[in-house]
Amino acid sequence: MTFYVENETDGGFPFSLEEAAKKVILGVLEWEACPYEVQVNVLLTDKEGIKEYNSRYRNIEKETDVLSFPNVDYEAPGDFSMVEKNEMAYADPDTGEIYLGDIILCRERIVSQAVEYGHSELREFSFLIAHSMLHLLGYDHMEEAEEKIMIEKQEKILDKLGITRN
After folding, report:
1. Which of 28, 60, 103, 115 has the fewest CB atoms inside 10 Å of its own CB, making it the most exposed?
2. CA nearest to 28, candidates 18, 15, 38
3. pLDDT at residue 85, rounded to an integer
């Protein structure tokens, strides 16, 4: 797996962004039985930055906690048959890895939501990475049933990784 983590903010966290992101990304890929070596990009930005990305790519003029930009078109969530049919369209020609997409996180929202939900910044960062990774694997939460599936998967994955709310 190849992944890139870029922090374009002035702030940091009391944990390694790279180590935490890698742990959760690998945990999600294992949970979903992804049969491919993959690439994922993670960008940490500030409120102004995420508002600009949200405006530019989704025409929504407000900040958010995380944005997901999937590269693979799935017939069903976690169904890798589209990748099998179009591997060349999704693969990085240099590495052969499947490029899943990009994740953009808002630093300030990670901090404020950790306080709001009463858990650590590591837990909030990890939750948002897991959430976004599920989007990169074709999951969505536009309907209540879909949201329930995503929340359940996120919780189970983070529990398995030992990243709890405490």
Report:
1. 115
2. 38
3. 87
